[in-house]
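Limitations

Structures in this collection are predictions, not experimental determinations, and the ligand pose is part of the prediction. Treat each record accordingly. The example that follows, with protoporphyrin IX containing FE as the small molecule, is included so readers can see exactly what is and is not provided: the inputs are given verbatim, and the output is the predicted complex.
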Amino acid sequence: MTPSTQAFWRLVLLVAAFLIWSLAFIALYGVHGVACAAGWASVQNPWPLRLTLIGLWLVMTSAAAAFALWTWKRPIKDQAAQGFLRTATLAVAVIGAVSTAWLGAPLFLVRVCA
Amino acid sequence: MTDAELRQAPAMSAIARHKALERLWGTPGGWGKLSAVNHSTVGMRFIITSFVFFLIGGVLAMLIRAQLAGPETDFLSAAAYAQVFTMHGTVMMFLFAIPLIEGLALYMLPKLLGARDLAFPRLSAFGYWCYLFGGSMLILALVAGAAPDSGWFMYTPLSSKPFSPGINSDVWLVGVTFVEVSAVCAAVEFMTTVLKMRTGGMALHRMPIMVWYLWVTAAMMLFGFPPLILGSVLLEMERAFDWPFFDPTRGGSPLLWQHLFWLFGHPEVYIIFLPGAGIISTILPVFTGRKLVGYSWIVVALIALGFISFGIWAHHMFATGIPHLSLAFFSAASTLVVIPTAVQIFAWLATLLSGRPRITLSMLYFYGFLSTFVIGGLTGVMVAVVPFDWQAHDTHFVVAHLHYVLMGGFIFPVLAAIYYWLPHMTGRKHLEGLGRTAFALIFLGFNAAFLPMHLTGLLGMPRRVYTYGGDLGWNLLNLVSSVSSFVLAIGFALVVVDVIQVARFGRRTRRNPWNATTLEWAMPTPPPAYNIGSQPEVRDRDPLIDDPGLPAALARGEGYLGEPRNGWRETLGVHMLTGKPEQVVLLPGPTFIPLWTALATGLFFVSFLFKLYPISALAFVLVVICAWRWMWNSGLRTDAEPVAIGLGQTAPLHATTADPPTLWGMVFTLMANGVLFGALVFGYLFLWVVAPNWPPPQLLVREPVTPLLLVAAAAAGLWAVSRAGGANARGERAASQTALVTSAACGLVIALAALAVPVFTAPSPTAHAYGAAVAFISGYMAFHGLIAVLLSAYAWSRARGGWISAQRRVEFAALRLWWLYLAAVVGISLTLLHGPVWFS
Ligand code: HEM
Ligand SMILES: [Cu+2]
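Predicted complex:
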């Protein structure tokens, strides 16, 4: 990896938490849509789907939380931009984790496939 | 090296340097003006052109208001009214707001970064021509009475063939796509520029806040526009060739259009709002004499906003009967998006309260922005509540909300920016009197015009309806609206007069009349073509506070690249994170090739519009030839050692490094392309899920030969390109060239095998949306295989012509990226095409 590609991936890390968020969004929205349309779940028989979605949501949220924890623990390498970059990455990670968790709220409030 | 050598007296005087650089970076006169690639010139053209379109959009708005001034007016017919409001929306969004943002970024970005130009100057010029030609197509259609009339979001089935048989909708689809091309070009260019082309020492945290805003905006454009381009292409395919993507009777779905449109459309709102907010974050510190509070928080908020704003597209579709839980996900994301916006508002208020605000015109527009935007935000929260939306949906309440957000979030900040940067752009200062009158007319006129629309909306007045009965109690409110919108228009006219007279006759002013702190104010005013005599090494986010003598020192050449040489247009390429100078980027000078390429592209679009498909094919060939010529002239014929860059440092020329800007341009182009493909995948899955009996089992493609061929060719192509690069690095030129030939052959196999699917095995694309989707995906693969052939052939000729060596090797890296992308496309496409077989 050239130093430039390395720097590029470092920037990807800056937004990684929201990549997880996007993945969670797509997964929840997609699985729900497919399951209802394909008839794997319905208003009468919501629990298998609801549990699957909750499971997905837990996985995604834990991934985001784990990532936040990892950025927190990551050793500091000395580089001019590191102070800012570290703080910003951590902040984005925490906010991303909270946002991912927040996406799950409707799972407990709204009926599936209705 | 000693200190004396570091700060050695430069060889030429500031005046001589100015003259030499101006000669190098300037644009020729006469017809040569059409060859301009300089970012200030092209940026200014963008800005002025966008204001011309604003004028047109404004005249259309006046027609709307004249028609709605009283009940049962017969000034415009229903059909004419449909064209007028559609074109008003389309012009304002696609031909005014977005291009103005592009123009502003083109013009300001290098200056804010302390650079001399953008990463791909010819791409800037190409983007401008695409914009101009595409926009002109729409306006010509309007003049000819054949303008689009299905609303600015072109909902199907209204916009599809049976309901809009004329050419009107085609004009929209083709014209807007043409303009979109320019937006994607701009996005690629801005992404690369901010990443690589800053001045020395400008680490990420030293970038002016405006740069962060524009960067996030560019990223959103890169990801937001491709779904719309895809949607437009699909709809045009349906209209032109009867491929029924959106026709529910043949396995399509009109909702697919809505998804693709709003996948773009909601981020679009933020694409327009973010630069406006960036302007606010830029001018507030200057006019309060206080550094921006919460820089890092704003950056974090912007990143969050960039992502979350994509997760809310469906909130425009609350009334379409999507399952409640799906909508609830969008509602969850919609509530989330409030937080980053609030962070910015708090940062602004904190800056305002802790500083000493000066009342200037820009600040008046700031206050106008704040009050208007807050109202727009509140009504936005109201329509985000699903039950309320069902009530207000498609009434003038929505029109009011929309304009509060757009005027507040965009027009007011832009006016603030005009008055803020006018001294920089013209070297002259305005008188406040006329400007204040204009502000008063705009502010009062706007509120008096649009506040009443909330009421007419709540009283049930539908949008997009050309007239109303006199007994509904809407008369007075509408009259007030109409009269006030003319007051508003007079306000805008005054601004235009004011700006022109300042540019012509204004009093000359000193370099930095506002005591601003960012690098554009270190440049001579009006800015010369080369921007800056030498590029500074910055140590602070506000270099001009740090060192008030900086502008003079830079003009004396006491920075990077202060000595013009070899007729080169030089600017620094830096490390993405730290801003340490890494390379000298040599930029191309004036050339007509962007114009020719844009003309060829235009020929393609126009011939397509008039169904002259052989000419479209010819135009495509012309585009390829132009692109080839375009790329051919960059790079170096011989290897080169690192050169001195001033301040006692040396750096290699970009063509001799592992990652010249071109490579990042390729990365971002592929990202945009990937989003387009992703939207295609989404569309395929969406139809599969939503349309009943999809795909019809009897139509399924079941055939093992082409998948095997495709996979084998993709693998072989990947292998060939890495072998070509490896052999080149070892100096085995013949082996490298042979591998390139193999790579071209593999591309050809992919193109042919992919084409065989729709031609021989798939159902007819006109019979069912499944057939159309298979044909489209195969066509996408074939097209990318063809490009792989062309890129391989190009690299091969470059290698033969001596443009490639172990040191000058970007062609291989770019080709490898292309192959990686192509291989992924092949894998995903095959899974999509053959997946339904496994499920059936
Ligand atoms: C100059 C002052 C303006 C006035 C008086 C005005 C007036 C109007 C009116 C009355 C409508 C509703 C037409 C209807 O639904 O029957 C409308 C629609 C619209 N306006 Fe404006 N407008 C102005 C400026 C702008 C600006 C600056 C933008 C965007 C940057 C904009 C974007 C739109 C859009 C997107 C629509 C929706 C068009 C559609 O329904 O397809 N307008 N405008
Ligand atoms: Cu929206």
